[in-house]
Ribosomal RNA small subunit methyltransferase I (Candidatus Vallotiella hemipterorum), 302 residues
Amino acid sequence: MRHVLIKTLALTENQNYPASALYVTATPIGNFSDITLRALHVLKLMDRIAAEDTRHTAQLLARYKITRPLLALHKHNECEAAQRIVNFLRTGERIAYVSDAGTPGISDPGGRLVNAVRNAGLDLMPIPGVSAITAALSVTGDWAGTFTFAGFLPTKPKQRTARLQALALREEALIFYEAPHRMLETVCALAETLGPSRRILIAREMTKRHESIHQCMLSEGKSWLTMDPNRLRGEFILVVEGAAEYIQHITHQHDLILMTCLDEVSLSTAVRLSVALTGISRRVIYARALELKKDGSRKQKT
């Protein structure tokens, strides 16, 4: 094992790390031990390190006895700080950028910095590592073989519903991030808009001391979360099953049946009646009903 570690370190150290380059560096999402050997090597090479939260990053660096000047770059100062970093790079410095956890630029600051560095004609180097997305997917199962990462949903109900309606017909699994104070509201919105019969994986505090992973149907999500107040604490990743079948399986005749029902009764009743009359799965009928209602409301406004 020691021989393998020494060989790995040697390969890492022999790679070329040019000056005047930004190193977009992934850091652990919770457990400091998840940092890669390459990330540690790169951070030691840097002239300075830009961080989303310099206090948080200082703790990580102290753990591995790395001392480098820190520069704050977060969502409130990203444009200004990005220009400062470009200026430092132009003098020949190597600079790493790290967010609080995981990979910068994925629901974290970093995207504008990358744009600024690229527009300045300077080099960018990704230093990959642990990811909350892939960590959750690895324990989801074969129903999440393909996926769409949707990040955080809008906080306003109407905007959130519109966003979910736009995703309702996607066959691939859907991945969301969510804050603890919005979890119940979000799980209820997922069940209402996507349908209660989809599977959901609720991953909380990934890689941390109080990590928990639970899979159930969307209809069961709220009751599971409220059984224990501790289940609503921490950071969440949600993996939701995609639509089961392509919407093309619905014929024009099926559409006529569904539209007639929607004109006369509520959405839930229209879906129930259409399933009974057509024999098509509730999931597909429900997704199609949402699309028809959306198209109908658009036509009424024009």
